[in-house]
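Running this now, will post back.
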Amino acid sequence: MARTIIGLQPVREAIRARAGEIERILVEAGDSPTLKALARFARDQGIEVETVSRAELDRATRGARHQGVLALATELSLVGLDELSLGEDALLVALDGLQDPQNFGAAIRSAVAFGADALIWPEHASAPLTPATFRASAGAIEHATLCRVPSLVTALTQLDTQGAMTVGLDASAEASIDELDLTGPVVLVVGSEGKGLGRQVRKTCQKLAKLPMRGPIDSLNASVALAIALYEVVRQRRG
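Update: finished.
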C-alpha cells in the first residue's frame, strides 16, 4: 500500500532520502518555478512525474494544504527494538502517548535535527504515521530511524538493561536536565500533550528531569521541551 506525502519540503526530502521508494509524483500544472524545479529534481532521480490540475490534487489530498505537489511512496520501514545499536554515545527518543500529529511530527524533526539515532513510540495511544505527521516533520521523517513497540515500558526496561540511561522529562522533577550527566547512552522520554508521562513510564525511567525555566510558565509543548533537552545532550557531548 502506498503512502501519501504532501507539501514541497516533505516531498523534496522524500526524493533526497528515498528516491527509489517513490512510485510517482503529481505536480500542479502551471508556471511555478518552484514546482518546475521540484519536478526536474524528481525526474533526475528517475521518478515518474505527472502534471495534474489543482482540482485533482485537492481531491487526492481531501482538501489538505498540498502546495501543488503530492508523492506516492512505499510505506515507511520500521525497525525492531533489537535492531537498534546502543553504542557508547547512543541517543534515542521515546514518545509516550503523543496523539497530536503536529506535535508528533515536530518531535521527529527535533530528534533528526539533533542527531538522535532512533525514535521509539508505543503502538497504542499515539498519533499514526499519516500525511499530517509527515508534513509536520517537514520531511525529517524520511531521515529518521523509526521503532514502534508493543509496550513502551517493556522497551525502556530492555534499554535500561542494555546500559542506556532513561531520562523522563517531567516539569515536577527535582533535578534539572543540565544537572545530569548525559554523555553516555541516553533515552529521552517525552510525555503526552496533556498528561505528560504515564504513571508506569514515569516509574520505569531511571531519572526524571525538568527544564531550567525561570519565567512564569512551568511547562512547554512536548516537541519544544524535547528540542531543549536534545540541545542539552548535544551541548554536554561537545564539551
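DSSP finds eight helices and ten strands in the chain. More later if anyone needs it.
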